[in-house]
Predict the structure.
Amino acid sequence: MSKSILTLTLNPAIDKILTVDRLVFEDRAYIQSTAEAAGGRGINAARMLTNFGAQAIAITTSGREAGRKFEAYLEKDTFAKEIVKIRNAIRTNLTITDRQGLSVKLNEVGPQVAPAEQERISKAVEKLLPEASWLMLCGSVPPGIDQHFYTSLITLAAKHKVETMVDTDADPLLHSLEARPTIVKPNQSEAERLLNTALLTRPQLIDAVQRIKALGPKSVILSLGSRGVIASTSTEGVLEVTPPAVEARCPIGAGDAMSAAIVWALERGESFSEALRWGVAAGTASSKLPGVSLANREQSKEIYAQTRITRVVA
């Protein structure tokens, strides 16, 4: 039986998505549609993995009335779930997006998570590791969670010979590097915060992935939105993958689609360069869809054929 890909979302949310005619400051916009869904980076990644035919298990938390609503929305998803109950209410995040593809994302910080609850989350992950091939650590860490929590899970996964991808920000990202995860995948803002420097030019971006790789992870993928990715890999040097120009309708969730497609491809035994092409294709195809929609394999394959790969440094 094939092994599962685990996604962990410590700080899930009810995603409330408003679509407006146009986003402008100091003038009114008219709401055209409103939607709600169960959200969080790992939830989106599990959805994308399922779209691609992979076996995903989403590990997440849930608390109070917001949690009950979140779980009801999650029932629409076919992937397996491992839900750890916490005492406090999970958050609600608001995304406002317009027809031009502009969007504003307003996120709550999330609930306080007690040490005993952290221990239960850790046990839930540990229980599933023996039957897993990858563990994806996705998104922000809510208040009260130990900033080294991801670090300990990467070490735990390594004991079970499970590969790890880290997609987070700030101190949890910095500390996770110590445990030498398989991949870290910061976006440009997250990389700038990590290195405490502005990244304005292509040479600076190329230098950044090499500097982050020197801090411990086996590979680094720097996500650049509509400009694709620059990656420093453990097997193929520094690579750049660029997507074709498309009309983006909603970029929210595109980064999660990218992470999932990369892990999906690597688990299938594809080379790193091929995995990056699939990741960029999935992210680009998802950004073309309205609201927080994630592309399927066919939609991604169409873009995949148009991606360009460059070996920057051997």
Notes: The chain is about 35% helix and 25% strand. The chain has a mean pLDDT of 94. The first strand starts at residue 4 and ends at 9.
